[in-house]
Design a protein that fits this description.
CATH topology: Glutaredoxin
Oligomer: single chain
Distance between the termini: 30 Å
CATH class: Alpha Beta
Shape: globular
Helix content: 25-40%
Strand order of the largest sheet: 2-1-3-4
CATH superfamily: Glutaredoxin
CATH architecture: 3-Layer(aba) Sandwich
Number of domains: 1
Largest sheet: 4 strands, mixed
């Protein structure tokens, strides 16, 4: 089994904003996978960009793995693990789940 430190990190972007309870829950969930996968977690604050804020407003958090939307609002462990495994194997062209 490959150790997370031996792999190129999987980019996990979380679109959210400050004082968002669901965003904090999602970030904690993502961190639970760092023992199993090499993850680069990127927080994207939608309030820092008027276009993002208008586009996503209250539809957060959104979770992207290597640019692919894999979850909205909450992370289902099985679905998220599957997306991370595909990304780890280099299958970056998987269908958005939403």
């Amino acid at each position: 089994m490959t150790k997370p430190s031996d792999c190129e990190p999987i980019r996990v972007e979380i679109y959210g904003k400050a004082d968002c309870h669901l965003c904090e829950v999602v970030k904690k969930k993502v961190l639970q996978f760092t023992d199993e996968f090499a993850i680069e977690m990127i927080d994207i604050d939608i309030t820092s960009d008027p276009l993002l804020e208008k586009q996503y407003a209250e539809r957060i958090p959104l979770i992207f793995v290597n640019g692919h939307l894999v979850a909205k609002y909450r992370i289902e462990e099985k679905t998220f693990r599957k997306a991370l495994k595909k990304a780890e194997r280099g299958k970056g062209l998987f269908k958005n789940l939403f």
